[in-house]
Amino acid sequence: MKFYYTLLLFFCFSSLRLFAQADSTLLSRPRKNFDIEKNSFIFPHVWKPGSLKTTVGLTSTKFPLDYIESALRIPLIDISATIGLPKGLDLSVNINSIYIANQVKLGLHWNKSWEKFSTKIGYDMGFIFGGLTQYGFNNRTSVWSHYPNASLGFKVRDLAFTLKSDVNIVTYINTTAGGIKITEFADFFNGGSLGIYLEQRLWANHVLIVGCRDNYVKYYYPVWPSFSAFNRRYHNVELSLGLIIK
Fold it and tell me: Among 78, 92, 188, 219, which residue has the least CB neighbours within 10 Å?
C-alpha cells in the first residue's frame, strides 16, 4: 500500500515540476493560441475524425466501512483512449485495474458543442474480471455491465469543467470459490454515478485532469469478494488524477 501512495505522490510531483519548467519557458517565448476544447479528453466536444488521445492516471477509492471494516483507500491504475469518428461521434476504451479486480470498457458517444457549453450522450459496455488467490483463497469473478451516460461541459479560457452521470445495469455476474459457483445474478439495476472533472492546461498542449465521482451502487467491482454479503447500495467516492498524452 505504501508503494501505491509513493507512486501517487511521485506522479503529482512530476506534474507540478513539469508545469514549473514549462511556465519558465513560456515567459521567454510568445504564448501560442490554446484551445482547451480541442485538447481536452473528458470535456464533450466534436472530435476530428481519426484524431486519437490517451490518458494515464490513478484513481483513489475509499471503501465503506461495511465492506472491509477499516478506512482503507486503494488507488487504481486508469488508462483511457478515445478516437474521433465522423458526425460528432467518438469511440473510447478504458482500463481500470488493482490486480485482483479489473474492468475493460468500450463506449460509443455523440457530442454537440456550442460557444461555452457542450453535451455528450453515450453507451459503454464493460467486462469485469478478477481473482483472489492469496492468503488461502481461490476466488474468481466475471461480470458484464452496461453504462448509459450523459455529460454537460462548460469551458472558460484554459479550463474545462464537465459534469458526467451514468446509470449501471448488470446483465451477468458469476463468482466462484475453489471452482464452486457461489454467486450468479443476471439483469438487475445496480445504481449509478455522478462525477465532476476539471481539465487544465499544464504546458504547451498538455492537460491535467482532476476528478471526483460518487458511485452509488450495490456491486462495486474493486471489492467484489464482499458482494455476496450485502444487498444494498453504498456511496463509493473516487478521486482521480490523470494526464493527457498526445
Answer: 188
Q: How far apart are CA 199 and CA 209, in angstroms?
A: 5
How far apart are the C-alpha atoms of 61 and 205, rounded to whole Å?
A: 29
Please give the CATH number for the structural domain made up of 2-245. 2.40.160.20
Cα–Cα distance for residue pair 138/90, rounded to 1 Å: 39
Q: What whole-number distance in Å separates Cα of residue 2 and Cα of residue 26?
A: 36
- This prediction has a pTM of 0.81
Place of cell 466534436: 46
For 127-174, the pLDDT digits (tens) are: 999 888 776 677 888 999 999 999 999 999 889 999 999 999 999 988
Residue carrying the nine cell digits 467491482: 221
For the record, the C-alpha cell of 224 comes out as 467484489
| Strand pairing class (159-177; 180-185) | antiparallel
Segments of the chain assigned E as strands: 52-62, 73-84, 89-97, 102-113, 117-132, 139-156, 159-177, 180-185, 188-203, 206-217, 234-245
Task: Write the CB contacts of 41 (distance below 8 Å, at least 6 apart in sequence).
Answer: 53, 55, 80, 82, 199, 207, 209, 242, 244
**Domain layout of the chain by residue ranges:** 2-245
